[in-house]
């Protein structure tokens, strides 16, 4: 069942030959050139990313600050009062908002809104 798929993916082409009334498959190798397509840089500007992050952040804000009071310099834990569980939920919400996946090592290093905005701006798959 999977043989044709594997043959197509690896670049092998099978040729069926008939010799003395028995058929068998003779693999013929071909040159398989792989092509990579890279996505273009993110078309999002810094202000749009910042606004969308602040909109997501409003649902996690424990200090009752308005959207106008939240700046890019705000720290998630110190200024906005997010604990570790809130931070994980916030990162998941940002991943869903921008259709990206943030690795755990990088997510641990994101401490402010500006760092998160900068990461998303540099992420080519963000939408």
Automatic annotation (TrEMBL):
GO molecular function: acyl binding; acyl carrier activity
InterPro entries, A to Z: ACP (IPR003231), ACP-like_sf (IPR036736), PP-bd_ACP (IPR009081)
PROSITE patterns per record: CARRIER
Carrier domain boundaries: 47-124
Pathway: Lipid metabolism; fatty acid biosynthesis
Gene3D superfamilies: ACP-like
Keywords: Electron transport, Fatty acid biosynthesis, Fatty acid metabolism, Lipid biosynthesis, Lipid metabolism, Mitochondrion, Phosphopantetheine, Phosphoprotein, Transit peptide, Transport
One Pfam family named in its UniProt record: PP-binding
A cellular-component GO term for this protein: mitochondrial [2Fe-2S] assembly complex
Keyword Zinc: no
Subcellular location: Mitochondrion
Main location: mitochondrion
Superkingdom of the organism of origin: Eukaryota
Annotated function: Carrier of the growing fatty acid chain in fatty acid biosynthesis.
Family from the record: Belongs to the acyl carrier protein (ACP) family.
HAMAP family: Acyl_carrier
Protein's UniProt name: Acyl carrier protein
Biological source species: Maudiozyma exigua (Yeast)
Lineage per the UniProt record: Eukaryota, Fungi, Dikarya, Ascomycota, Saccharomycotina
Gene: ACP1_1
């Amino acid at each position: 069942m999977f043989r044709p798929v594997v043959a197509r993916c690896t670049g092998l082409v099978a040729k069926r030959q008939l010799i003395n009334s028995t058929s068998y498959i003779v693999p013929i190798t071909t040159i398989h050139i792989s092509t990579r397509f890279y996505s273009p840089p993110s078309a999002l500007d810094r202000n749009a990313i910042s606004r969308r992050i602040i909109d997501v952040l409003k649902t996690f804000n424990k200090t009752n600050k308005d959207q106008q009071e939240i700046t890019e310099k705000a720290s998630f834990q110190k200024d906005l009062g997010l604990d570790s569980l809130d931070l994980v939920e916030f990162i998941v919400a940002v991943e869903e908002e921008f259709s990206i996946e943030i690795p755990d090592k990088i997510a641990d290093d994101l401490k402010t809104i500006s760092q998160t905005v900068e990461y998303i701006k540099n992420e080519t798959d963000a939408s």
